[in-house]
Amino acid sequence: MLLGFSSAAELYTYVTCVILGISFLLPLKVMVSAPRFMTDYYKYATGDPDAEPNNPFFWANVLGIYAAASLVVQMLFAPTVLTRTVRRLSLSTRFTFAVSSMLAGAAVIPLMPVVKVTQTVAMVVLFVSIFLSSMGKAYLEATTYTLVSSMPPKFMSGAMFGASLCGVITSVLQCVIKGSMENTYESVLKQSYIYFSLGMVIIAASLVMTYSLRCNSYAQENVAEYRMMKQANSDEGGCHNGTDGENEPVAKMEEENDVDEEAGMTTAEQLTATPVLPVLKKYT
Questions:
Q1: What pLDDT does 223 receive?
Q2: Which domains are seen in the chain, by residue range?
Q3: How far is CA 119 from CA 45, 54, 145, 169, 251, in A?
Q4: Could you tell me which of 191, 78, 244 has the C-alpha nearest to residue 145?
Q5: Is the pTM of this model over 0.85?
Q6: What are the C-alpha distances in Å from 52 to residues 40, 63, 166, 273?
Q7: Which regions span the lipid bilayer (predicted)?
């Protein structure tokens, strides 16, 4: 027993769920951690410290607008995870799409002060960032819930703990950075680079850790997709004789094939085979 876990593989799986939970809120939290950078973003995007806002209301309330627009985008995209097209995708593909969208949405914000754009372009970029980050968040949450659904409840709790821990981490980081750096135009820009860089590193790390679960013995035991990948890799190294089962009764062979087919369903196949409406009716 290691910290209440039966093995190091189980502990690693739990830590992965916590990191995924932290990643849920990072795009928004890193912006909230740099409020002056966001409210003065038009100055940094144009490269002019003395620039005047072309839309004072928007820039004064940019964080509130970001949060509200983010919620709307998530509400629009969250139901799409129930479509057959999305359910047909593998966990790895869904994690890759979600994390890539979140990374792209976070990366464009600190990129604009480097390339220098107009205030109008900066506003458009912010909404593009909202769209990408919120869409990625919706899919990351849904995919994480799919991952932990076949595991004990503590792994779902781990993801929820990570979401709450995100605020603590960013708040502590904000206190440390603000206390050790000046509150000047250039210093605020450097602080924003630190916030966004660390946020993107953690989000990228969550993707790497989810990919490594494919080789994790505990995840292979509990997640159908990873279990089937392990079985497929084992079968590739096996040796099959063409005469095996030659004299087996047909009924017995068909029964075994049916059992193998049912046990060999990946997570995506299980989700695709599950009708959505009966499940919704059951819990509504």
A1: 87
A2: 8-220 (1.20.1250.20)
A3: 7, 7, 39, 31, 72
A4: 78
A5: no
A6: 10, 18, 34, 56
A7: 12-38, 58-83, 95-115, 121-140, 161-181, 193-213
